[in-house]
Amino acid sequence: MLSVIQNPPRTTLPIVGSQDFFPVRRVYCVGRNYAAHAREMGADPDREPPFFFMKPADALQVVGTEPAEHPYPPKTANYHFEVEMVAALSGGGSDIPVETALHQVYGYAVGLDMTRRDLQDEAKKMSRPWDLGKAADFSGPIGPLHPASVIGHPDKGAITLTVDGAVRQKGDLGEMIWSVAEQIAYLSRYFVLQPGDLIFTGTPSGVGAVERGQRMVAAVAGLGEITLDVV
Fold it and tell me: Which end of the chain is more exposed for a tag (fewer CB within 10 A), N or C?
């Protein structure tokens, strides 16, 4: 039996130190997971239950060691950067205990949750889903995966973003409200997590707009950096 349309290629991530690749299944993103960012977005950060949204896997933009061109999306005049650490799962399941949740993680990468903020804000006011704001094409730039078997499970260290050399976001992984293990455990109550799933684990304060012609450099301690030129 043949498909009536050409099967699209599956999104895959390169792996540092390996010729193998990591196939992506789903992309989960946690909202307001750093206290200072929660406050700048008008929320109370004191351990409110986490909430999640999703991006299509093919909205990822895989970025290597060289600068990449990042297309400014249509229908927005307020396009925001949000630097994040991304956890990639090689295991999964339902109702995963926090104590064993990190056993499901294959590795980590630097990522960006790019957001059409004006469309997101409009959706919030109208109590509508965030898809138009969060799920634009190329809205998930991501670098190569660093296996946890090599680097361990980062729980502290700098997470930063610069625009044209000026620091715009600066935080520490230790400032997460909900740890990576807690995010996995919480998500697994609502979904059967599977190998290939990604979790964008939240962004520190300082999110803001970027314009065409500007260069973004996103970095996480131990995971390197990715460079994007907005076009």
Answer: N
